Amino acid sequence: MTSNDSQHGHTLSRPRLYLLALASAVVTANAYYIHPIIAVVAEDFGVSASIIGAVPAFNQIALALGIFFLLPLGDRVSNKRLTSIFVAAQFFAIAGMAFAQDFELFVAGSTLLGFFTIAPYLLPAYVSRRVAPGELGHATAILTTGIIAGILVARAGGGILAEQFGWRSVYYAAAGLMLLVSILLPFIMEPRDRETVPGQSYAELILSIFPIIGRHPDILLSGVIQALSFGIFLAVWMGLGLHLTSPQMGYGVDVVGYLAVFSAISLVTTARLGKWADEVGATKARFVLAIGQLAAVVTLPFFGHSLWLLMIPIILMNLVGPAIDVSGRMTFLSLDPEIRTRLMTIYIVIMFAGGGIFSWAGTIAYDLAGWNGNAVLSVILSILVLGLAALSLRQQRER
């Protein structure tokens, strides 16, 4: 155990861990309300499918930038203080989205929201210093389950609420939840946390990321795998939001939300798969899960005509996708505690940069070739995930 681990000990109680997972759910949900309502927002602002893709794309790219410039502070400044500041900034950004009358202002609010969505990525490093090493996979999976719950509620609740009360009601409700989290989260996080780690300026802290990559090059491979996997998730849901509400399918935005409910299976399976990954090893688990992901994605072009058939790949994708993320994080969260936040920075920056690119690619593919174009893009990305997961597993076995 390192000195830092000794300082904090394995002090995190299970109730606090679940409360942090709940806070992660609320904070993460903000980026995903757009999924079921993307078509009605585009119609209200009078923009095309390709242009509306800028909303999730800029949000994800801004998140990558925010993580690069802000998340490394978690290795130097109190995680509690940073989380409180960033959550408050998110509240103001999403409130701005709720009241924006111009599309440009709506995009600006979404972009600022992404830049300050740091809390869910500070918390894994925060928790990793407060649980036993043998419980790391399970604890990480619980936090990931919270994030999944937030995504699920955003997509299901957002569609249902928008169908009944209009799309702006979704962001009014989200702003209210963010205000509540802003008030309560500082009381959930432990007060005993370092305020400042001396010896490095902010510039030195940012620049120190690059030597860390040199010492731990596997972080790049894990980041790219997750970028592609996350890109599949975003591209598919952008496509679903446009496809199901199209004249050909004729469903309302509430149906997009109802479809998201079937992904609730991941709330039950992710923690269990985290335990399984603890047993078999992160890289082997990720390879097996990538096979499952590809098996689900290849059915998308064939099942797109039927809402009921689409439930099959959606359920399978939501079973394996979050677990791929958990196994990817496990490859580096067991390393030196003093650099875990910066390792998380590298991983998440790559993940969200890819997510932003591929979410926009998903709407462009839909604009060009409809659902089949979106589905084929997702199949290509899934093949790349499997190939890189196999490469990672081979590299580990050769060591």
Automatic annotation (TrEMBL):
Keyword Transmembrane in record: yes
GO molecular function list: transmembrane transporter activity
Transmembrane helix found in the keyword field: yes
Major facilitator superfamily (MFS) profile domain span: 16-399
Gene3D superfamilies according to UniProt: MFS general substrate transporter like domains
Keywords from the UniProt entry: Membrane, Transmembrane, Transmembrane helix
Membrane-crossing residue ranges in chain numbering: 17-35, 47-70, 82-100, 106-127, 139-158, 170-188, 219-240, 255-273, 285-304, 310-332, 344-369, 375-393
One protein family per Pfam: MFS_1
Signal peptide location: none
Annotated InterPro entries: MFS, MFS_dom, MFS_trans_sf
PANTHER family associated with the record: MAJOR FACILITATOR SUPERFAMILY (MFS) PROFILE DOMAIN-CONTAINING PROTEIN (PTHR42910:SF1), TRANSPORTER SCO4007-RELATED (PTHR42910)
Name of this chain's protein: L-Proline/Glycine betaine transporter ProP
Organism from which the protein derives: Candidatus Phaeomarinibacter ectocarpi
